[in-house]
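One-letter codes give the sequence; backbone shape is given numerically. An example follows:

. . .
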Amino acid sequence: MMKTIVCHGDSLTEGSDLNPHYAWPRLVENQVNVKVVNSGIGGDTSGGLLARFYPDVVRHKPDMVLIMGGTNDLWWDLDVNLIQANIFAMTCQAEYHNIVPVVGLPLPLCIENARQQNMMAPIGGWENCVQKLDRLVGALASSAAESDIASLDFYHLFLDAKGGVQGKYFLEDGLHPNKDGHLLMASRAAELLKSTFYLA
């Protein structure tokens, strides 16, 4: 019986600028009868997630870990293959410690909103970042399928029927989900847990 899940990630998991009660990991905990630990840290890269995997995930002795990262790596124009290597190194560590890994596919960027903010732009430019994010999502989904690891697709959840980003689910910064966005993510995660892992 599954008792504990750790959600390991960056600000998309932490719940940037929101009360922790509104972040999707807490909302998932309310929907399935399992303790959910949120180990999201804003600004963290996949290398950072890998470095703190033992203290922030393994130490809790969870039954499952939902791993989602890579957006911040792309901000620094790091290579998609490097991000993949870090993510799947974590899935290997999880399986070694008898923890079921699930790979999260990160959200798209609402660049129309993001461009208008007073923030540092991605090192390689906005368009490059968006293109690499699309490649990363495809690469993570393919690798997860080939490795018999479940993936949690948040990326396509935030796109409309024409492939456009649904800005109504984002904060003004265009990068982070708002309360409605987190509700959407929680519903998708709970759906996966119930259908694939038979959680009530």
About this structure: The radius of gyration is 16 Å. The first strand starts at residue 4 and ends at 9.
